[in-house]
Amino acid sequence: MGLVLGACNVLDYTQQDAISETVVYTDAARIALAVTGVYDAAQSGYYNGNNATAGVRGYPFGAASTDLGDARGEDVTDIANFFGVVYPNTISNSSPNIVYMWANLFTLVNKANVTIAGIKQAQAANVITASQEAAYEGELRYLRALAYMELVINWSKPYTDGNGANPGVPFRDTPVNTTAGITSAGDVARGTVANVYEKMLADLDFAGTNIPTTATGKTRATRGAAIALKQRLNLYKGDWAGVIREGNKLISGTATFTSPIGGYALVGTQRAAFVGSGVTTESIFSIENSSTDNASTNGGIGSVFGNTTTVANGGAGGRALLAISPLLYNAPFFTCNDLRRTQMMQVDGARYVSRKYLDGATNTDFNPIIRYAEVLLNQAEALARTGQGTQALALLNAVRNRSVAAADQYTAATAPTGDALTQAILNERRIEFVAEGLRWGDISRLATDTKFAPYPSGGIPAKLWGQTAGNISLARYSCGTGVPAGVKPGVDAVPYAGSPTSYLFLWPIPVAETQINSKLEQNPGYGR
Question: 118 lies in which domain range?
Answer without folding.
Answer: 48-103+113-288+367-516
